[in-house]
Amino acid sequence: MTDWLYRWHYAVSGGMKNILRHKRWLFVLSCVFTSLLILNFSQGELKPQSRWVWVDIIGEGASAACVVIWLLIVLSMRPPGYVTNWFAAGFIGIFASNFQDFLDEWVRLPKITTWNSWVESLPIGLLALTVALWLWRKEQRQIDRYLLKRQAIYQDSSPLDETTSLPKAAHLSAQLEQAFAKGAASWKQHALLLLDVAPFSDISYRHGGKEADRFLVVISELIMLTLRKQDVLCHLAGDRFALVFKNVDKAKAQHLAQELETLIKQFRYRVEGLEDSIVVGASMVMIMADEEDDAPEHLLDRASFALSQQNNSVFSNTFG
């Protein structure tokens, strides 16, 4: 029982901490609640108890309470931002309408009053919530595309690198062996790309291993954004990554490699507490599997040797 209470307290505390990130919307909600109470009781009078319809009171009160609960759930789950603002505006608009319905069961307003009908009838909250759902749909589609790439990694039984959660060198070798085993026609449609990202070593030296690990995670996510569904990304060691492009000819593979190189060059890494961003670069080597009829181990060895010789394209650690 004690363990259950501890878990419940921990969950509630965490949820409240997240909700308090949205103080602006909590303030708006309290203003709407207070304003409707003041307007109704200052302009109207309480109905006699004989006129109370408890079914309507309970139903409309519960509706208003549920909308507030939905709002708090959304605020506890989402960070502040554009989509969250639309959700909050929508739920508060719906709450205003439901809460005014609830107050109408208790308070009789003068017949000349019209603002209460506007509050109850205007679908501003529903329109805002519709916009929020549309934006959320677009957001989820982007997340789904990313998760599909991650899903292919986690469904594989190969051990993952603890830092980047990417497959290790063993998975790369297995992928190349599988492609080679399918025959020459399939093998020749594969390209291996090795890249060393910079300035990993300098970040590790200046800011420590934890920041260097964070740098690798950020770079791995950046690279993954460029991958097609069938491509493979592995973290070999340190600052070295490997990609296998499947079903490509040399021109297509070069185009994909160039896109990746451009993306990395344009990226700027930020260390918390450091005002200036860090320029990121990479040296890379791409080898087609049809060159010299390479077996998988020869392909990887040649690529590793070529990359070790290529230092002129590695960016030094400069601040932009």
From TrEMBL:
Q: Which InterPro entries match?
A: Cyclic-di-GMP_PDE-like, GGDEF_dom, Nucleotide_cyclase, Rev_trsase/Diguanyl_cyclase
Write down the PROSITE patterns for this protein, in alphabetical order.
GGDEF (PS50887)
Q: Does the keyword rRNA-binding apply?
A: no
Q: Which residues form the GGDEF domain?
A: 188-320
Task: List the PANTHER family hit by this protein, alphabetically.
Answer: CYCLIC DI-GMP PHOSPHODIESTERASE PDEF, SIGNALING PROTEIN YKOW
Q: Which domain of life is it from?
A: Bacteria
Pfam families hit by this protein: GGDEF
Can you name one GO molecular function term for this protein? cyclic-guanylate-specific phosphodiesterase activity
Q: Which UniProt keywords apply?
A: Membrane, Transmembrane, Transmembrane helix
Species name for this entry? Marinomonas transparens
Q: What is the protein name stated in its UniProt record?
A: GGDEF domain-containing protein
Q: Which CDD domains match?
A: GGDEF
